[in-house]
Amino acid sequence: MRRWLDHPAWPHVRAILIALHVLSLVVLSLPTAGAIHDRRRWQTANARDDLRRMAARLTAWGLATDEHQLEQALWSAGDAYLRVQRPIAAPFQRYAELTGSRQAWQMFASPQRHPAEVHVDIELSGPAGSQWQLLYRPHSDEHAWNREQFDHNRFRKFFGRFARGFIRSHYDQSARWIATKAAREHPEASRVRVRLARYETLPPERVRAGERPALDKYEHERVFDAEALR
Length: 230
Known about the structure:
Number of helices: 11
Number of domains: 2
Number of strands: 4
Order of helices and strands: HHHHHHEEHHHEHEH
Helix content: 40-55%
């Protein structure tokens, strides 16, 4: 091995190998069919909003179109792109598998403009009857129950998926776990409620003006009997 490393041609061979490795990473980082031709992604609130905004902008520039026409044009362009991308990427696939250099996840196509927050409430009995009290809301110093755990990057990433690709079984299991923890730590509560608060993010100028997004709606509400969870 040492003899090969001392060979005069080795620096040139090494440069070629490094160049091929970098080229493989570049080629395999190009968008694939999963990122381009997944109808579910095209129907999300983010994607539809992107199409409407792009169509309006193109129309203002003199290229009259609407979101459906633009969608079909982009889908056809994706077809043409994949006919080129697939044969180019094929020779590098085996190399990526052998070296473990394949990137398994994809970058976001666009920012999440319709996020959802996990909110937790407990029901308390009082002179005026039973009332719901907000226990946890992200980024709130007032409603910060279990915040240290929920602010962990793994929890934040997991909760963030509910806004993009909602999986009912994952949400139901999480809601029950959260409700159980809340019920045990708040023995005065009669019920626990877990739900998603959906809202639309604000444009930069409104954020700079100090506005906060208004909650548009609550969805996927789960209510649990606190005593049964203890």
